[in-house]
Specification:
Layout (H helix, E strand, L loop, with lengths): L10 H11 L7 E4 L9 H16 L3 E6 L9 H13 L9 E2 L4 H13 L3 E4 L3 H7 L17 H12 L9 E4 L14 E5 L13 E3 L1 H11 L4 E5 L6 H9 L8 E5 L3 E2 L6 H9 L14 H7 L3 H11 L7 E2 L1 H15 L2 E2 L1 E2 L2 E6 L7 E7 L9 E7 L1 E5 L3 E2 L9 E2 L3 E4 L4 E9 L5 E9 L16 E2 L2 E2 L4 E8 L23 E8 L12 E4 L3 E5 L8 E7 L11
Parallel strand pairs: 1-2, 2-3, 8-9, 10-11, 12-27, 14-22, 18-19, 20-23, 25-29
Antiparallel strand pairs: 4-5, 5-6, 6-7, 13-26, 14-17, 15-16, 17-24, 20-21, 21-22, 25-26, 27-28, 28-29
Helix pairs in contact: 2-11, 7-8, 11-12
Length: 555
Amino acid sequence: MAETEHRPTNFIRQIIDKDLANGVHTSIKTRFPPEPNGFLHIGHAKSICLNFGIARDYQGSCNLRFDDTNPAKEDIEFVNSIQQDVKWLGFEWDGEARYSSDYFDQLHGFAVELIEKGLAYVDFSTQEAMRGMRGTLTEPGKNSPYRDTSIETNLQEFAKMTAGEYPEGHCSLRAKIDMTSPFMCMRDPVIYRIKFAHHHQTGEKWCVYPMYDFTHCISDAIEGITHSLCTLEFQDNRRLYDWVIENITIDCTPHQYEFSRLNLEYTVLSKRRLIQLVEEKHVAGWDDPRMPTIAGLRRRGYTPGSVREFCLRIGVTKMDNMVEMSMLEACIRDDLNVNAPRAMAVLEPIKLVIENYPEGESETLTAPNHPNDESMGTRNLNFGREVWIEAEDFRESANKKFKRLVLDKEVRLRNAYVVKANRVDKDAEGNVTTVYCTYDADTLGKDPADGRKVKGVIHWVDVASGEAAQFRLYDRLFNVPNPAAEDNFVDAINPESLVVKSGWVEPGLPGRVPEVGSWQFERTGYFCLDKDSTSEQRVFNQTVGLRDTWAKIGD
């Protein structure tokens, strides 16, 4: 367990340490059990890192299991995307991926066992009637008129349900627990319902499907899970979890432990709300770079290491809290600052013409791929009489704080020469389109010979060889820190969450995508090549800016 020495402990690791010390368990087995009804998000990443991380650190194992009990909302696309996400984060599950549907025969047998013990009954009440009998948090529920049906009759009726003799919604199988319990989940919960739907794993074999709360605990027991880790919203459900395990004949008795779910500012992590964003086309699919899905983060340019580091920094607690978006961005910024090679791109171009540079000539300059890491090597840059610069890097007049190009003053072009602006061309609206300048031919890689100081450095792209590109600049998806608290969360969507700009990049970037996936476009931010990119149209997504911009929000 050497890898755990430098890691902060948490209450779950303390429980595991105690269980191992007391001989409760001799080895540790965890699982990550997503429902395949959507893409995983950053909150799931926290659970993945916890379950797989514990298995790794304690030399145990972790299962990937799809809790696939609702075929109407599930799809093989989600199964595939979840497997991809787990692997992308750097984890491998024990053996083959598992499915709760693998255990449908056993689950059905356990349901029959509960009926035989007088602990389950078939209820023909409508859903509305069951809701009416359920009671409230302050008032106990009322027994169903079918609660005392004989065991023999219940076995017959459940067999008819299984055989498809009743339509959907006609009846359901309920556990017989306690309609007066202060915990709503214990008031005779439904454990099987009729659903005529094609299942992505079992096809048409079943027309009755177990409910999640019944399935989950039994699947854990079948797989020999020692520590069943879930988020706090399932805390009350632990009583049902334990009741099911205690009342069926099974060797393993796993225990459930709850931790706080991730709440992240300026986004939503409810799968229902994420589905709404996709279906109502507020975003361009599950992997839209503004989405908090793992697929969205990956497309945005986040690295697996940065996501794992984020999960490590936020820790594992029993207290719900809101995590600042800047914390997530700091993790990717720290990663890419060290590991991303540099390149140059101009997002809002104006032309710089070097009038004393020989017409028709060009040269090849050498630039480091990383200013602090010689092992990354160098790259060649084409340089000629005309280059693109950022519009914001030039002013006709400015105060001394402006360290970029000003009329009648000098600035250095990154990895190139010192230039002096002399005059400009403007369009009909008065915007500068072209800056005419002169260069000092003796300043390549060195300061001016006469000792004058040039404080500013700006980036550029050669006009003759630069490649046209589209840049997608992303901001927070919502305008408020907690959009889930709004009456209608979609009303809080930030209309400026995506801004598209057209400019230029140095040539050949698509052919040398770095291992980390992103470049630092010097003085601009970190960018990655998007899947929409073609040979005719380069498309780059902004991963994150060079500095924390979230601190300014709300000022």
